[in-house]
Amino acid sequence: MATVIKVPCSSANIGPGFDVIGLALDVFLEVEVTVTPQEKSEHALNCRITYEGVGAENVPLVAADNLITRTAVYVLRCHGIRAFPSETHVHIRNPIPLGRGLGSSGAAIVAGVNLANEVGDLKLSKARMLDYCLMEERHPDNVAAALYGGFVGTYLNELSPEDTERLEIPLSEVLPEPAGGVDTGLRPPEPPHNIGHFKKFKWAPEIKCICIIPDFEVSTAKAREVLPETYSRKDAVFNMQRLALLTSALGESPPDSDMIYTAMQDKIHQPYRRGLIPGLTEILQSVTPQSHPGLLGICLSGAGPTILALATDNFDSIASHLLNQFKKEGITCDWKLLQPAEEGTTVTRPTATATATATATTAPKGEAMTYASSGVSIDAGNELVKQIKASVATTKRPGADAEIGGFGGLLDLQAAGYAEPPILVGAIDGIGTKVKIAFEMGKHDTVGIDLVAMNVNDLVVQGAEPLMFLDYYACSKLNVPDAAAFVRGVADGCRQSGSALVGGETAEMPGLYKEGEYDAGGAAIGAISRGSPILPLKNEMEVGDVLLGLASNGAHSNGFSLIRKIIETKGLSFHDVAPWSEDETVGAALLAPTRIYVKPLLAVTRKHLVKGMAHITGGGLTENIPRMLPKTLAAELDAKTWPVPAVFKWLKAAGNLENSEFARTWNTGLGMVLVVDANHARQVTEILQEYGEKVYTVGALVKKAEEECVVRNMDVWG
Ligand SMILES: Nc1ncnc2c1ncn2[C@@H]1O[C@H](COP(=O)(O)OP(=O)(O)O)[C@@H](O)[C@H]1O
Ligand SMILES: N[C@@H](CCOP(=O)(O)O)C(=O)O
């Protein structure tokens, strides 16, 4: 079993806080260390290094050269230990882009100090570890954030002349000489005690970090060389005024975008670094909270070249604007939507029981255990309930007050308009693997709409009015902002369908799901008035009845396992510009929420104008349309009569899908298909159009021969 050291990346400065503030973000460097006692090792300093991830081609795998292990050697030598125990295997997993202003070197140094602490059993406190980190990194913003987590402010002590001298000793003299390993046998200079101090600030949970990462490196050392030695009083005051306000403004909910935008301006480092990053000034000035609602502020991340935009909404459109700005300079970028990593560096040690860990999840012998120590936080659950109360209340409807907190959710059918006992209809469904795209995009506020849609569209095709909804959200560790965003989506779907969100369940189950992931299900209950038709009216269907198709909003919530496979085989990331639409990313386009057809369809069913409806979900047209037909009739559709959205054309071509497979996998552009009497087709079309639906006459019912659903002219699909 290995010990695992996990260190977050960081964004330093946040505009005016040069060398002062840092924010740990949720991309983690992982160092897995195993010591297998053996007499002699063939590896220098007894350390074998393996590496995967970013920089695998260039990062040195020799212990005296690699930043992580040479930091560890320095710390070990300060404690009289000349090399790693024989034999140490260090496996590095690094997803942090190098030299981009996301604190890769800070994370490597923090990992190195922790590595020494583990293999040398040094029992260093975090404060002492910070001293060692500072001996190398020399500016405290990244390392304090990476070590302690969250949003931190830092300062360095004024040092005595001797300590200053010690701190100014070049690293080549601190580390094994010259980063190449001749062991001088000397004990390197130890860092002074308590050099660095930090304070954690609050960070408003709705603020997310859009990181635009250009495809070139700027070394922090070079980006510091371009800075002046002295500044005018005017510029120093400019930054101090902004920094003082910024640190508290970023903790306030809801965030004040005007204040944050202004408070993120800087005159100390960004103006001098613009020569290193083409178009920097123009790019920073190209967005404001007015031009891009949801944006709070923008700055260089660390020493650059990454741009950090803080926002509460519209992440994709802000990112795609910034990607385009860089594109004008001939620079391509990747982008990530990140969130603060509150925990900082964690170390998980193997224990006798192999599965137990030495992080907060194990209680030392004899110590009183709590439910929280097992990974379930009742407090987080309570906080979630507090945060979702308001959005849930917006789903209130006659008969249900949508107030959460009780043991069960109530609905008064009489108050809901059903004086006589109605026929109740229930449906239950999930979102499927579309949630994986939400994880990747860090966008959780629309998959709840999909969840509601999958259920209420199933109810309405039976002629039922959806009345109440309950959702189930299961995760490993409850992330309150993500879960709250998810419930906002559910509430949105409920409002669109007129159902009250009367309850739900949040299950925190450590170990069952992957960290950062969740699954969700939900159930809807609807009613049909006694005497009203329960659809489909199979007995009333006849040859010549018209099939009307309603436009879908993309793939809705079906066929995502294949979609993800196609995206993967094409080597695309969900953050890439969608090959079928230049204006959005792959992930944003695929997350388009499922269309909820309840209100328009109730308008036509209440007028008794519809004989049957099929909700086109998994199984596509060919499997779902027959579900509403009598055994004697078949549906004949003409593929020329409705447009296939660009996303489907691309998926079909990219996955090389046969026409028949295409028609039974996705909705091909039709989210609902209705059977109506030919005499009613026009009236139904007009009513649905009044509700904003796009309606196509896609075929008719015919006498059944072999197949229950025939699609003619499929060759138009290509
Ligand atoms: N995981 C790692 N393993 C080894 N070296 C690393 C690692 N991460 C960063 N480094 C070193 O740090 C350098 C980048 O440091 P720096 O210029 O400060 O940029 P950044 O803004 O990413 O911290 C890399 O080029 C590499 O030499
Ligand atoms: N305050 C430092 C921060 C450097 O951060 P990095 O992520 O680029 O290493 C500076 O601006 O130089």
TrEMBL record:
<feature type="domain" description="PurM-like C-terminal">
    <location>
        <begin position="542"/>
        <end position="710"/>
    </location>
</feature>
<dbReference type="GO" id="GO:0046084">
    <property type="term" value="P:adenine biosynthetic process"/>
</dbReference>
<comment type="similarity">
    <text>Belongs to the GHMP kinase family. Homoserine kinase subfamily.</text>
</comment>
<keyword id="KW-0028">Amino-acid biosynthesis</keyword>
<keyword id="KW-0418">Kinase</keyword>
<comment type="function">
    <text>Commits homoserine to the threonine biosynthesis pathway by catalyzing its O-phosphorylation.</text>
</comment>
<dbReference type="GO" id="GO:0016126">
    <property type="term" value="P:sterol biosynthetic process"/>
</dbReference>
<feature type="domain" description="GHMP kinase N-terminal">
    <location>
        <begin position="66"/>
        <end position="150"/>
    </location>
</feature>
<keyword id="KW-0752">Steroid biosynthesis</keyword>
<dbReference type="InterPro" id="IPR010918">
    <property type="entry name" value="PurM-like_C_dom"/>
</dbReference>
<dbReference type="GO" id="GO:0005524">
    <property type="term" value="F:ATP binding"/>
</dbReference>
<dbReference type="InterPro" id="IPR000870">
    <property type="entry name" value="Homoserine_kinase"/>
</dbReference>
<comment type="pathway">
    <text>Amino-acid biosynthesis; L-threonine biosynthesis; L-threonine from L-aspartate: step 4/5.</text>
</comment>
<dbReference type="GO" id="GO:0005829">
    <property type="term" value="C:cytosol"/>
</dbReference>
<keyword id="KW-0658">Purine biosynthesis</keyword>
<dbReference type="InterPro" id="IPR020568">
    <property type="entry name" value="Ribosomal_Su5_D2-typ_SF"/>
</dbReference>
<dbReference type="Pfam" id="PF02769">
    <property type="entry name" value="AIRS_C"/>
</dbReference>
<keyword id="KW-0436">Ligase</keyword>
<dbReference type="InterPro" id="IPR016188">
    <property type="entry name" value="PurM-like_N"/>
</dbReference>
<dbReference type="InterPro" id="IPR006203">
    <property type="entry name" value="GHMP_knse_ATP-bd_CS"/>
</dbReference>
<keyword id="KW-0547">Nucleotide-binding</keyword>
<keyword id="KW-0808">Transferase</keyword>
<keyword id="KW-0443">Lipid metabolism</keyword>
<comment type="pathway">
    <text>Purine metabolism; IMP biosynthesis via de novo pathway; 5-amino-1-(5-phospho-D-ribosyl)imidazole from N(2)-formyl-N(1)-(5-phospho-D-ribosyl)glycinamide: step 2/2.</text>
</comment>
<dbReference type="GO" id="GO:0004413">
    <property type="term" value="F:homoserine kinase activity"/>
</dbReference>
<keyword id="KW-0444">Lipid biosynthesis</keyword>
<keyword id="KW-0756">Sterol biosynthesis</keyword>
<dbReference type="InterPro" id="IPR014721">
    <property type="entry name" value="Ribsml_uS5_D2-typ_fold_subgr"/>
</dbReference>
<keyword id="KW-1207">Sterol metabolism</keyword>
<dbReference type="GO" id="GO:0006189">
    <property type="term" value="P:'de novo' IMP biosynthetic process"/>
</dbReference>
<dbReference type="Pfam" id="PF00586">
    <property type="entry name" value="AIRS"/>
</dbReference>
<keyword id="KW-0791">Threonine biosynthesis</keyword>
<dbReference type="InterPro" id="IPR004733">
    <property type="entry name" value="PurM_cligase"/>
</dbReference>
<dbReference type="InterPro" id="IPR036676">
    <property type="entry name" value="PurM-like_C_sf"/>
</dbReference>
<protein>
    <recommendedName>
        <fullName>Homoserine kinase</fullName>
        <ecNumber>2.7.1.39</ecNumber>
        <ecNumber>6.3.3.1</ecNumber>
    </recommendedName>
</protein>
<keyword id="KW-0067">ATP-binding</keyword>
<feature type="domain" description="PurM-like N-terminal">
    <location>
        <begin position="424"/>
        <end position="527"/>
    </location>
</feature>
<keyword id="KW-0753">Steroid metabolism</keyword>
<dbReference type="Pfam" id="PF00288">
    <property type="entry name" value="GHMP_kinases_N"/>
</dbReference>
<dbReference type="GO" id="GO:0004637">
    <property type="term" value="F:phosphoribosylamine-glycine ligase activity"/>
</dbReference>
<dbReference type="GO" id="GO:0004641">
    <property type="term" value="F:phosphoribosylformylglycinamidine cyclo-ligase activity"/>
</dbReference>
<dbReference type="GO" id="GO:0009088">
    <property type="term" value="P:threonine biosynthetic process"/>
</dbReference>
